[in-house]
Amino acid sequence: MENWLENKIDTEPVVISSRIRLARNIKNIPFPNKLDEEQGKDLVKKVEDAFYISPEIEDKYKTIYLWQNEHTRNNTYLEEHLISQKLINNSKQAAFILNKNETVSIMINEEDHLRLQSITGGFNLEETLEYANKIDDLLEERLEYAFDEKLGYLTACPTNLGTALRASVMVHLPALTANKEIVGLLNALTQVGMTIRGLYGEGSSGEGNIYQISNQVTLGLREEEILRNLTGVVNQVIDREKLARERIFAKNKYVVEDKIYRSLGVLKSAVILSSKEALNLLSNVRLGVELGIINDINMRILNKLLVEIQPATLQKIFESKLSEKERDLNRAKLVKEKLETVRL
Amino acid sequence: MENWLENKIDTEPVVISSRIRLARNIKNIPFPNKLDEEQGKDLVKKVEDAFYISPEIEDKYKTIYLWQNEHTRNNTYLEEHLISQKLINNSKQAAFILNKNETVSIMINEEDHLRLQSITGGFNLEETLEYANKIDDLLEERLEYAFDEKLGYLTACPTNLGTALRASVMVHLPALTANKEIVGLLNALTQVGMTIRGLYGEGSSGEGNIYQISNQVTLGLREEEILRNLTGVVNQVIDREKLARERIFAKNKYVVEDKIYRSLGVLKSAVILSSKEALNLLSNVRLGVELGIINDINMRILNKLLVEIQPATLQKIFESKLSEKERDLNRAKLVKEKLETVRL
Questions:
Q1: What's residue B11's pLDDT?
Q2: CATH 3.30.590.10 region(s) of chain B?
């Protein structure tokens, strides 16, 4: 499975990445919010013992203990979509197991004991679920999950009962955002048991025109049904976005090209750049690549920049604590450097 | 004398060009507004006979008859600051004599019979006046000017009586415009008998932060006094502009650099570009050159672009009639091409 950041443009330009998350809890151990620091760390140990059962696994995976890191370092994992804000809130006793390719992350002591996540580039839910299930099976060999015949996997929050599966697709919807269709879409998706959120999940708005569409309902459906429903909905969203793009482009070809190239021009020239502005400009450039207007940018660079321009990752790259003003200056430098070879 | 468009940055970064205009009328011939087409053309002939008196002059100068040209072609001369709007309004019987270097233009049948103009790059009023006086002397050898001992040169409009000299300096005042000092300056200049106008004279506002400062009073002062007064005023304006630049730069170094480089970025990337926006972006880039922030643009390119982006000149360059939308597209192409080698 390929890291989503590395993913080049594939058959489906609207979709950036696909993600699967399984929530699991271990029988006879209280949910994380009832565990003290020592008990929490014991659980981390217990999961590690169950997981690292062969030299191959030990070679391919490592555990990152949040309590050993500075806050900014932990935030870089959040910005890479490898862990959740809730895991960081539990830093004192939280950890996660990560593979080298950074496509799989097993969060320990998030809201549930385990949150297995797999993420990959493009529209690829089946393969992503397969990978998550493999990890799940491996863990289940040595851990007894809390499971109920009727309620399915038992989870800290009742909205996750049943399959405890959340499948999520990250999409780039500049045209539906521009023509405001996104507002109606949000309501429509809620009515069919789906939800749409911003780049960084709950509470984050659609900055950079990037949204995550995921299933809301986990109980009473099989995993395959959840995936089938989500796939159907996402395909509809893709079609609508493409139609909206065609309409805008047919009506205002030069206006669209102007916006795309000016965005590239500003990204290549700015001395001060906020992350919000950068996300929006990168969205326009991404649209240019997706429409075939810009041909000399690798999508990999744009994906990586989505993460690299974030505050914590930026500070990791420049190896120093940076104030907001310093971040804006360094962000501009970084973006300019990454896009240096791209022609205007 | 060097053409102002060709002028490279010299010792004085704020000043773009210097211009002298002398108004003259020929004795016993009514002012142009009283001449019919035939009489007007007779006057053109009379001036030509008096002017083209040697093979050297015939080689160096030529007459352009506005009535032979399309309106757009005549407008290109206006955009180059070689003739005035009033000359164009009189197209049916107006002409002008132009030297090869395009530093001298003798307008015939403007508001007065003759308007001798010389224009050069940088802050250079003395040399410019000298050149105008030379032409004036030459014409006076064979034409009898309308002159009164008390009122000086007689002109169609009484505000030009006396020396009938207007000296004018084109300046770039982005800092005084940004901090709004320009408003007070306008009032102060009026009180000392000076006037400040936009890039294209009366009625044009200070687009692109470019202004023309000139003497308002022509009667009761000698030519040298007019020049000395104007030079004094312009030197004060230069000092205030420089001080304002220093203050802005000291306070917001990165903000200034950001604005300058973004402007260059947009000029190098836009697909649609209005002349108003282009003028303002070019002003920011000019400031960057004047402040030594941008080092690889020849000021000549920026001067020429001031004219080349104007509607008529643009159509001349692209050799076709262009609608406003087409001009905006072609203007963007032209600017991109001219700035192609400049690094961001």
A1: 54
A2: 4-243
